Amino acid sequence: MRRPIVAGNWKMNTEPGPSLDAMVSALAHHPSILRAHHAGITVIVAPPFLSIATVAQSMHGTAVHIAGQNCHHEESGPYTGEVSAQALFASGATWVLVGHSERRRDAYEDDALVGKKAVAAVRGGLTPIICVGETLEQRTAGITHNVIAGQLLGALAIAGRDVFAASVIAYEPVWAIGTGLAATPEQAQDVHNHIRNVLASAGVSIPVLYGGSVTPENAMELFSIEDIDGALVGGASLKPDSFGAILDAAEATWRVA
Ligand code: 13P
């Protein structure tokens, strides 16, 4: 059974204060949230660490789940500047992104570390959203399938089947992130189907979200693709109305007739 999910990754945007409060209040009361919830769609937002507790409090009693954008692979200890899955959970998060391409790029996270983070997340009570995706150079070189399989199997070798079975995958082609250039339906379906096959060969069947320049304009087309189970939205999740419009597209796609 498919479990549609739409998540908004706020990245390093918003800061605590009145403008965040106004945005969160608009989101909490947005009619699209309730409609999506009734259609069986899981709605998630991933604020910066410092706003997780406040956003979680404001979203309490709504259908919006809270995610961290990253977590450390250990529960506690001498890791200056890091945040544990336990701390995220205690602050109100129930989900966490791991292995986002911006962390692979800026914090040199490799597949093994991503696998360890997925383990830490599940141990801390969070559902990991494991991100994978190829760069433009890799796509141009024709090695997209190999890269994606390597990322999945590299993390799976560390995390194990049970942790993967409790996770969600987000396919985010690096060249589509923040560029306004989303994957075409053919490109997205090709990789999503590949991801499903790689996971199936390991006995895992979990939702696969698409991320990379998802907007209210292209959401419906992306959601209608066979192997897409939802979206991980960056820029367009920062405005309640555009995030709401993407939720509406999800609702129209997955509403039980
Ligand atoms: P954009 O939607 O801004 O392209 O970002 C996608 C993303 O990286 C979500 O995690």
Topology:
Blueprint: E1 5-9, H1 18-28, H2 31-38, E2 42-46, H3 52-59, E3 64-68, H4 85-90, E4 95-98, H5 101-106, H6 111-123, E5 127-132, H7 136-140, H8 144-159, H9 161-165, E6 168-171, H10 185-201, E7 208-211, H11 219-223, E8 230-233, H12 240-254
Parallel strand pairs: 1-2, 1-8, 2-3, 3-4, 4-5, 5-6, 6-7, 7-8
Helix pairs in contact: 2-12, 6-8, 8-10
The chain binds 1,3-dihydroxyacetonephosphate (13P).
Q: Whole-number radius of gyration?
A: 17 Å
Share of helical residues? 40-55%
Strand percentage lies at 5-15%
**Strand order in space, largest sheet:** 1-2-3-4-5-6-7-8
CATH topology: TIM Barrel
Structure ligands = 1,3-dihydroxyacetonephosphate
Q: Count the domains.
A: 1
Q: Span from first to last CA?
A: 15 Å
The CATH class is Alpha Beta
Number of helices: 12
Question: Could you tell me the number of beta strands?
Answer: 8
The named CATH superfamily: Aldolase class I
Oligomer type: single chain
